[in-house]
Amino acid sequence: MSFMGSPDHPPGKGYNNYGVYLRGRFGGRRVFKVIVDAGFTCPNRDGSKGYGGCTYCNVDSFTPELPRSLAAIRAQIEQGIIRARENYHAEKFIIYFQPNTNTYAPLATLRTLFDEALTICPNDVVGLAVGTRPDCLDPAKIALLESYAKHLMVDLEMGMESIHDATLLKLRRGCTHRDLVAILNQLEHSPLNLCVHTVFGFPGETREMMLAYAHEINRFPQLKFVKLHHLHIVAGSIMAVHYQRQPFKLFELAEYTDFLCEFLPLLRPDIVVQRLFGISDWNLLVAPNWGLKKVRIQTHLDQAIKRRGIIQGSRFSP
Question: What is the rounded distance in angstroms from the CA atom of residue 311 to the CA atom of residue 318?
Answer without folding.
Answer: 16
